[in-house]
Design a protein that fits this description.
The complex is a heterodimer of chains A (98) and B (331). By secondary structure, chain A is mainly alpha-helical. Chain A has helices at residues 3-23, 33-59; strands spanning 29-30, 67-68. Chain A is flat, with a radius of gyration of 13 Å. The chains are: A mainly alpha (98), B mainly alpha (331).
Chain lengths: 98, 331
């Protein structure tokens, strides 16, 4: 991982350790926005990863339905209006598992 | 940073000035500190009122939670006793999928919180640089008003004074009182959430332990950072906390998280209400009219739902009326 990637991941970890426990569980998605961001940066690098994470945080709003939304694998379509997992319960599209 | 936040600072300054004018119109002294303090309270009211649609949307989204309770139970039973990471992950996955499928979700999402952060920074900057520094007028906040606000004292404290950066004792005392109020309201909000609205499963394990530690450590963080905040910011923060507390109280009372202490109490209240209703109906059928609104709400919730017999609290006594009876009584 690049320096930028490491720095961002560290900041997100810090958020998960310090800020997140205070607000209680509040993310509508699985994995949560912060986990998604870490994974996105790991898979796609700091630049694209940050873009994916930002898009995810924006989609995590009171009008969305939430649900399972994995980081798209490399080569997959990156930005979708809805979730990146067409309700496939057992068939994980998680980039980590491929 | 300057240009990025400028539009927001402009909006914040305007809202404060408009509230200042409203208070002046009502009859408060425009040069008094309390008027400016109340203008900041007005800012909180405006922002939080503007965020109410988000809040209502979230409440509505969590309404159907009761209906999917049986399905949720199934998922929980399936992973009962499995503590390994893969099972936890799979369970969380299935739970979230279930929420999504039924278009319901108990979580608020972080957007309401994220939106407020820039507003807070904007206010901080307006108080620090426009009122306190020499950034000059912004929006409706003219130089005259800046001078007026800078000279106004709230219990002897200027709005842009901080605990560390102030002259005289009164500003320090006001600042200290507000810091204590800020810490207390933050803590109480946090306490209310963890003690009442988290399911038992979330109250054990390392995460919960950490949450507990942080809950008690947070006041100390504010005690360290608070003295650097201007009195105006402290007023804003404390008011926001009070609003958040009230809003959370309302949610916890009416839409508790399944499996939490608050839900148990909520069910008890509903059962007690049903019992009262039944008793009243037994004595005096006309009194039922008062219950009209809740009865209609129950009816709409009931429509087309097979799971209805699951709700224990409405079993019980015989006079437990069906919707048809309700309409008969009321007509």
């Amino acid at each position: 991982m690049t320096v930028a990637g490491r720095a961002l991941t560290g900041a997100i970890r810090g958020y998960q350790l310090v800020v997140s426990p205070l607000t209680g569980p509040r993310c509508k998605y699985h994995p949560t926005c912060s986990h998604f961001a870490v994974e996105a940066i790991q898979v796609h690098g700091a630049f694209v990863g940050t873009g994916l994470a930002t898009w995810r945080v924006l989609r995590c709003n009171p009008w969305s339905n939430g649900g399972v939304d994995d980081v798209p694998a490399k080569g997959e379509r990156l930005f979708r209006l809805t979730r990146n997992n067409a309700a496939m319960l057992n068939q994980s599209t998680s980039a980590r598992l491929t | 940073m300057d240009t990025l936040l400028y539009p927001l600072e402009w909006v914040v300054a305007n809202i404060v000035v408009i509230w200042h004018q409203i208070w002046t119109f009502i009859g408060l002294d425009p040069t008094a500190g309390i008027t400016w303090a109340l203008a900041i309270v007005g800012l909180v009211v405006t922002i939080r009122a503007a965020l109410i649609p988000l809040f209502v949307k979230q409440i509505k989204a969590s309404r159907a939670m009761q209906l999917i309770a049986p399905d949720l139970k199934k998922v929980q039973d399936k992973y009962k006793g499995k503590k390994d990471q893969a099972s936890r992950e799979a369970m969380s996955r299935e739970t979230m999928e279930l929420y999504s499928k039924h278009k319901t979700n108990p979580f608020a999402s972080c957007l309401p919180m994220l939106i407020q952060a820039p507003i807070f920074f904007a206010l901080f900057r307006v108080l620090n640089y426009n009122l306190g520094g020499d950034a000059g007028p912004i929006g409706l906040l003219s130089q005259d008003l800046i001078d007026q606000a800078a000279n106004a004292t709230f219990f002897g404290a200027h709005l842009n004074e901080t605990f560390f950066n102030s002259e005289g004792m009164s500003a320090k005392i006001v600042s200290a009182v507000l810091i204590i109020a800020m810490v207390a309201t933050t803590f109480l909000t946090q306490h209310q959430l963890t003690r009442k609205n988290l399911p038992a499963s979330a109250l054990e394990g390392p995460m919960a332990q950490q949450q507990k530690i942080l809950m008690y450590a947070l006041p100390f963080i504010f005690v360290i950072t608070g003295p650097n905040f201007p009195v105006g910011v402290l007023i804003y923060w404390t008011t926001t906390n009070i609003w958040t507390f009230g809003q959370q109280f309302y949610v916890i009372r009416n839409n508790p998280t399944p499996g939490s202490e608050a839900e148990r109490q909520h069910k008890e209240r509903l059962a007690a209400k049903a019992a009262r209703k039944a008793a009243r109906r037994g004595e005096d059928p006309n009194a039922v009219v008062i219950e009209q609104a809740p009865a209609i709400e129950d009816e709409s919730k009931r429509s087309g739902q097979r799971q209805q017999p699951k709700r224990k609290n409405r079993g019980g006594s015989k006079p437990q009326a069906l919707p048809a009876d309700d309409t008969k009584d009321e007509s």
